[in-house]
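Retro notes (design track)

What went well: tokenization of the new backbones is finally stable.
What didn't: we kept losing track of which sequence belonged to which structure.
Fix going forward: every design gets posted as structure first, then sequence, in one message. First example under the new rule, 208 residues:
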């Protein structure tokens, strides 16, 4: 293989003047040697394709963006496995597809758990009429506050406070270490508390 020509050359390549497959191989060689700028050229070239692939599977822009970013991280850490006779784009998109499908399966499991939580909650004994009205109002506002949090915060709070799972059980559900679950739960609870303090003063004391 010819000697890599450097990141300035690669930037010119992606303006359309040189064969892309050859440019990808050059970028990979440089990136393997620790040239982050070379890998950044690949990111700029294929970030739109990575996002579109993830979005087609997940149908959610935020999740697709997260998957695309994670795919580039995985690709960079596994460059040693990339065979130079392959094209980089299909190799990258295989990583994107696998991550998106994994996220889709995880999402389906989370939705199933939340549906189960709703079924369990619906079996609670009905309170007295006035208590029911107050409870419904409070529940609606709590759910409104929860729904304003980002997705991973909502999931971790649902698992803990709706399903009443302990940290070890939660770790199995979201496939993360118990220590990570504990820190995520703490941060999510803080964000919910801050939101309630700022915008739902009537619920103060309900989220502790």
């Amino acid at each position: 293989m010819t000697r890599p020509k450097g990141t300035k050359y690669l930037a010119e390549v992606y303006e359309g003047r040189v064969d892309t497959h050859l440019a990808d191989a050059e970028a990979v060689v440089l990136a393997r040697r620790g040239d982050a700028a070379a890998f950044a050229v690949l990111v700029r070239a294929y970030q739109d394709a990575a996002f579109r692939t993830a979005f087609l599977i997940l149908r959610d822009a935020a999740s697709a963006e997260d998957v695309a970013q994670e795919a580039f991280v995985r690709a960079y850490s596994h460059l040693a496995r990339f065979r130079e006779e392959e094209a980089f784009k299909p190799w990258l998109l295989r990583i994107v597809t696998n991550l998106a499908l994994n996220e889709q399966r995880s999402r389906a499991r989370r939705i199933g758990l939340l549906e189960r939580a709703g079924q369990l909650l619906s079996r609670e004994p009905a309170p007295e009429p006035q208590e029911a009205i107050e409870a419904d109002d409070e529940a609606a506002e709590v759910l409104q506050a929860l729904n304003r949090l980002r997705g991973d915060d909502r999931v971790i709070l649902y698992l803990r406070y709706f399903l009443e799972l302990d940290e070890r059980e939660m770790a199995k559900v979201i496939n993360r270490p118990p220590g990570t679950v504990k820190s995520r739960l703490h941060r999510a609870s803080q964000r919910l508390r801050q939101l309630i303090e700022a915008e739902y003063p009537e619920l103060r004391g309900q989220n502790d």
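Added context from the reviewer: The domain at 7-106 is CATH 1.10.1740.10 (Rna Polymerase Sigma Factor; Chain: A).
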